[in-house]
Amino acid sequence: MSGTSFWIVMAASSLACVVTTIGIVAISNYGTWAREHAVYFMSFAAGVLISVSFMHIIPRSFEMNDQAPTYLLAGFLGIYLTNRIVRLYVCREAECSANVTMGIIPMLGIGLHSFIDGVIYTVTFNVSVLTGVLAAIGMVLHEFPEGIVTFVLLERGGFNRRRAIMYAFLAAAISTPLGTLVSWSFINAIERSTLGLGLAVSAGALVYVGASHLLPAVEEETKRHTILALFAGVLVAIGIVMSKG
Prior knowledge:
This protein is mostly helical. It is 87% helix and 0% strand.
């Protein structure tokens, strides 16, 4: 892809960084408003991510490589196991204080997740601008509540407001464009059939984020309009996919 395409990908991942930062600032300064509205962003983003994955990204990866179904499963299980390992086993290797178990360990998991988001931007935009944009819509929207969650976890772990903001920014925000930068040269050089495998892995990760990360968090809330937000996300995704044929 051209140098212009690189800047498109960087713009998308940088936008994710900005939206995450807005979430961090919102929760640190306007806590009540941020907590009340974050669930709607999560619900809408889940609708977009799940719909885009099943209607566009997964079929596209299957067209590009016959082995894509196996890598789709690997992407789903890989992101799940990575999150579980960080949460369950890191602390068992050391004596963890309250701020480690309540703040640092979840922060590491979110940081790794955000770094992988940056890689997903690189993969999807390398397939096509449409694929990248479709993935980016849901991913960017879920960054706002992710920034909120990261700050809250760090604050509950005993970090003061200033440190919680700084660590949340490093883990949840800046790690996304960093993931794009690190992965660009490698992914940009691989063959198209291999890129299809990467797209399948990305689709598995996106399905996990939408169905196993965002939706359970939404279901914990009692707000009725979250269902409307979910279906709004589904309709937006369907509309974009169908309009592009």
